[in-house]
Amino acid sequence: MPIALFRVDERLIHGQVVVGWGKHLGVDRIAVIDDEVVASPWERDLYCLGVPSEVGVVFASVQDARHELAVWRADPRRIIVLVRDVETLARLAQHQLLDHEEINLGGIHFAPGRERLLPYLFLSPEECERLREVARSGAVITARDLPGTRPVTLDDLLPEE
Amino acid sequence: MTRYPASVRARVLLRSFLIQGSWNYETLIGPGFAFTLLPALRYLHKQRGESGVPQAGGPDGATGETLEQAVARHVELFNSHPYFATVAVGAVAKMEADGTPPAIIERFKLALRGSLGSLGDRLVWSAWRPMTAIIGVVLFLAGAPWWAAVASFLIVYNSLHFAVRYLGLRMGARSGLDLGGVLREAPIQPVAERASQIACALIGLAVVLAVSVTENNPGRLAMAVVAVALGLALGSRTRKILTGLLWAAVAFALLLGLLGYGA
Amino acid sequence: MIHFNTHVLLVLALVGGLVAVDGTSFGQFMISRPFVAATLGGWVAGMPQQGAILGVALECFHLGVLPVGASKQPESGPAAVAAGAFFAGAEPTASILILTILGTLLLEHLGGWTVHLERLINVWIIAPNGALPTVANLERRHLTAIGLDFLRGAVLVMIGSLLLSLVVPVLDPYWGLSESLTNWMVVTFIIAMLAGSLRMLGSKYWFAALGAGIGLVGLWMTR
User: What is the 3-state secondary structure (H, E, C) of chain C?
Assistant: First the structure.
C-alpha cells in the first residue's frame, strides 16, 4: 500500500497529524525519520505519548529509512511518514528515492532567516532551493496543514523568479 | 515542584490560565510559556543571589547564567494544548532547578510540544468538550431551566480542565526528564474513549429529544430519518455542506417571499 | 426588538470581551461555547431562556468544527453573544431563528478573521522590530496582547448585534415558507449536525443507538 501521508512537520507527532490526518486516513502506523530522536530513548518516549495505543510508532535514521521506504510501501498497513525539516527530506530524496511520492508540507515555523509563506509555513531561501531540487527529482510537493484545508502546490508557493 | 515554596507554585498555576495570552504566528505561545514560568525563574535566581556561592548542580551553579539569559531561552517558539502546557511548565521548572543543561531543556520542550498538543486534542477537544457540551444540550432539550443546563456543562467540563492543569503541573514538576514514562501511565486514553462513548450515546438521546420537541405530525419521523442519514453520510464534512444547504434554503425562502408566494 | 441603550451596550461589550478572551488568551473555561455565550447574550437582553434556544442550535453547528488548530477557525464566542442578545429581543419565530443562525455563522467567520489579524498584530506587540521580550517587558507585552483581545471581542459583539438587528428584521417579512415547515428545517439541520459529529467521536454507532433507545423509553414512560 502506498504511503498514506509523507509529511514535513517540525513538530513531528502532534494533534494535526494524529487527530486531523490520522483519523481521516485511518492509519495503523506512524514512522518518524530523524537521526537525533532515534538515538535518544527519552525523546522517543515523549513523542510516543501523543499517539493512541492502536497506532504503532516506528523510529528510523535517514540511513535506515532509505531501505525501509520500500518495505513500508509494500506493507498492507497504512502508514504516515514524518520528517522534521527540509534537510532531512532532501537527504531522503537522493537518487530519486522519492520519485512520484506525494510530499506534504505541514508545519515549519518561524526561525531567524525564514520568511512566512503561509501561516504554518516559514522557509529560508536555502530551504526553498532544496525543495525545488526535491521536486526536480520527481517528488510532488504540496503544502496543506489539515485534510479540510486547501492544498497549495509548490509552484504557487515558490513562483520562479 | 518539591524545591519551590507553595506561593511560587500557586503563582505559576494561576499564570498558566494566561499562557495563550499573546498567541502569535512567530513564537506561538512561547512568550506565554516564559510568562508562566517567570515566578519560578525569579525564585531560583533570587536564591542563587542570596547564597552567593555557585553550587555544582544547584540553581544555575554550573553555568552562572543570569535571569535575563534564562528568560531569553524560554520566550522563543513553543506550543502545546493550553491545559497540558502546565505539564511542560512543571517539568521545565524542575529541570531549571536541577541545573539541567539548556540544550537538553530545549530538546525536551521540542519533543513535548507536539505530544502535549496531541494529548489535549484527543482528550479535551475531541472527546471531553463534545461530551460535556452535549450534556448541556440534552438537559435543555429535556426541559431543564437554562441556568441548570449551562451550569451542568460548565461544572462538568471544568472539573477535568482544573484537574489537568493542577495535576499536570505537579506531575511535570515531579518527573522532569522522565516525564515520558510517567505520563504514559496516566489514564488519558481510557478517559477519552469513555467520554467519546458517552458523547455518542448522548447524541442518540439528543436526536430523539429534538424530534420530540417539534410539533407532532406524521412527517416528523421521516424528517428525522433523512436528517440522521444525511449527517452519517457527510461525516466530517457535515458542517461545511450543511452551511451551504442553509444558504440555499434561506435564499429559496426569501425568493418565494419576494415573488409574493409568502406564507 | 432589543433596546440598545448605553447600559445594554456596555454590558454587552463587557460580556463580549470576556468570551473573546476565553476563546484563546484567558482561561478556556468554555464560556465562549455557543450554548453558554448565546445564553449570556440573551441574559444581557433580559431573556436568557430564548438565548439558550438559539444557543442549542448554534452549539450543534459548532460540534462539526474540527477540534485541531487550523490556521483560521470560525470563532464561536462573540458571534453567539451578539446573536443571543439580538434573538432574545426578537419575536421567537422559526424564520427569525434560522436567519439569526445564518447571520451567526457569518459573524463567526468575521470573528475568526479578526483572531487571525490579532495573531499577526501580536507578533509585533511581543517582538517589536524583532526584539524578543526580556524580563523587563515580558509581562507588560503579554498583558497588552490580552487587553487587545478583550477590546476586539467587545467591539465585535457591539458591531455584530447591531448588524443582526439591522438586517434580520428587514429580511424576515420576505420569508416565504410556513412557520411549521421552517421549524422542521431548523430541527433537520440540528439533527443532521448531531449525527454528523458521530464520525469525529469515533463512529460509535451502537452507543448512539443505545442513547436513542433510552430516549424513546423515557419519552414513552413520561407520556
Answer: CCCCCHHHHHHHHHHHHHHHHHHCCCCCCCCCCHHHHHHHHHHHCCCHHHHHHHHHHHHHHHCCCCCCCCCCCCCCHHHHHHHHHHHHHCCCCHHHHHHHHHHHHHHHHHHHHHHHHHHHHHHHHHCHHHCCCCCCCHHHHHHHHHHHHHHHHHHHHHHHHHHHHHHHHHHHHHCCCCHHHHHHHHHHHHHHHHHHCCCCCCCCHHHHHHHHHHHHHHHHHHC
ipTM for this model:
0.95
Q: Name the residue in chain A with its Cα closest to that of B178.
A: A42
Chains touching A (at least 3 CB pairs under 8 A) are B, C
Q: Are C58 and C75 in contact (CB under 8 A)?
A: no
- Nearest Cβ partner for B121 among A19, A36, A111: A19
Q: Which three cell numbers stand for residue B187?
A: 489514564
pLDDT (0 to 100) of residue B51: 61
Range of the domain at A63: 5-157
Q: Does A53 touch chain B (CB under 8 A)?
A: yes
pLDDT at A62 over 80: yes
Q: pLDDT, tens digit, for every residue of B190-205?
A: 999 999 999 999 999 9
- Are B11 and B42 in contact, with CB atoms under 8 Å apart? no
Mention every residue, 6+ apart, whose C-beta is less than 8 A from residue C9.
C158
Q: Which residue of C has its CA nearest to A144?
A: C70
Number of domains in chain A: 1
Output the domain CATH number for residue A118: 3.40.35.10
Residue-range domain boundaries for chain B: 6-195, 221-263
Task: Tell whether A122 is within 8 A of chain C (Cβ).
Answer: no
Confidence of residue C70 (pLDDT cuts 50, 70, 90): low
Q: One-letter amino acid identity for B80?
A: S
Q: Which residues of A touch C68 (CB under 8 A)?
A: 15-16, 19-20, 146
